[in-house]
Amino acid sequence: MAQIPIKRSIERVPGGMMIVPLLLGSLVATFAPGLPKFFGSFTNALFTGSLPILAVFYVCMGASIDVKATPYLLKKGGALFATKVGAAILVGIVMGHLLGEAPIASGLFAGLSTLAVIAAMNDTNGGLYMALMGQYGRSEDVGAYTIMSLESGPFLTMVTLGVAGLSAFPWQTLVGSILPLCAGMLLGNLDREMRAFLARAVPVMIPFFALALGAGLDLHKVWQAGLLGIGLGIGVVVVTGIPLYFADRATGGTGVAGVAAANTAGNAAAVPALVAAANPVYEPAAQSATLLVAAAVVVSAIVSPVLTAWVAKRANARLARRGEAQVQNQADAPDAKRVAQ
């Protein structure tokens, strides 16, 4: 039987395993909203079960995190992690003061919310980061994502919203949002075979929770996310990229790893719905935020690699000039010694 390259075609789309199922689910929600309930049973569960699927996803994600990271990984990953989350907190404080929890109701920025911006900024696209580091960086920098992967899930977004002075969450909700990740970390670090077993499920789960999330989105509202989504994606790259660049340089890097982390993870599109489920005050912002964050995933996945390649080229040129200068200094040294004699 002739094979159709479905997986390869989806992966050609930036963030394709998240974006394509999300779009399919939203098409159903827009043109056949009663279809899942009509068939009921497992079919309806597939379109409405985003939270259980995400709970399993975060257990598997946690299992892939190795707590026995080397000091370099702790230093580099910790610096990038703290910088990106810190930038999100600062932006959240400003936007929280101006907007509060609700999205902008009308005008050019209709649908934009503090929730959307923080969710887009808080989570790094790990696959993209590691691919870029594999091409432009060092193997040690690839491993720095071990620490940065703690960004995954709604926990940090909830904390950031609370720090920004917006509606806080009960401590039980905050702990509950990170327990699946911690359970996965415990399993993965106690047993390497469990880590390998659970980690394989991480990419498999993404299209399933994306489909369920998309099933709650009406495409009639997508136009509102168009230019805003592009702006949010570029904003994530710029606003987080600049401090991340300097954080990388401060920890002995060339700046390449910092720029490579200036993007949005595909699973970040799930965070607004999770936050709204934990605190209903964010429900008005959740749907538009999901669209905006999904758009930011695509845009940042395009812009970040281009910027990373440019920074890597400049860094290599700088190192080459430095090497030439050292060679020239070594060549000039004997001449200077003869003149002195």
UniProtKB/TrEMBL annotation:
<keyword id="KW-0812">Transmembrane</keyword>
<keyword id="KW-0762">Sugar transport</keyword>
<keyword id="KW-1133">Transmembrane helix</keyword>
<comment type="function">
    <text>Catalyzes the proton-dependent uptake of 2-keto-3-deoxygluconate (KDG) into the cell.</text>
</comment>
<feature type="transmembrane region" description="Helical">
    <location>
        <begin position="104"/>
        <end position="121"/>
    </location>
</feature>
<keyword id="KW-1003">Cell membrane</keyword>
<dbReference type="GO" id="GO:0005886">
    <property type="term" value="C:plasma membrane"/>
</dbReference>
<keyword id="KW-0769">Symport</keyword>
<comment type="similarity">
    <text>Belongs to the KdgT transporter family.</text>
</comment>
<dbReference type="GO" id="GO:0015649">
    <property type="term" value="F:2-keto-3-deoxygluconate:proton symporter activity"/>
</dbReference>
<feature type="transmembrane region" description="Helical">
    <location>
        <begin position="169"/>
        <end position="190"/>
    </location>
</feature>
<feature type="transmembrane region" description="Helical">
    <location>
        <begin position="289"/>
        <end position="312"/>
    </location>
</feature>
<feature type="transmembrane region" description="Helical">
    <location>
        <begin position="142"/>
        <end position="163"/>
    </location>
</feature>
<feature type="transmembrane region" description="Helical">
    <location>
        <begin position="12"/>
        <end position="33"/>
    </location>
</feature>
<feature type="transmembrane region" description="Helical">
    <location>
        <begin position="45"/>
        <end position="65"/>
    </location>
</feature>
<keyword id="KW-0813">Transport</keyword>
<dbReference type="InterPro" id="IPR004684">
    <property type="entry name" value="2keto-3dGluconate_permease"/>
</dbReference>
<feature type="transmembrane region" description="Helical">
    <location>
        <begin position="254"/>
        <end position="277"/>
    </location>
</feature>
<dbReference type="Pfam" id="PF03812">
    <property type="entry name" value="KdgT"/>
</dbReference>
<keyword id="KW-0472">Membrane</keyword>
<feature type="transmembrane region" description="Helical">
    <location>
        <begin position="77"/>
        <end position="98"/>
    </location>
</feature>
<feature type="transmembrane region" description="Helical">
    <location>
        <begin position="223"/>
        <end position="247"/>
    </location>
</feature>
<protein>
    <recommendedName>
        <fullName>2-keto-3-deoxygluconate permease</fullName>
    </recommendedName>
</protein>
<feature type="transmembrane region" description="Helical">
    <location>
        <begin position="197"/>
        <end position="217"/>
    </location>
</feature>
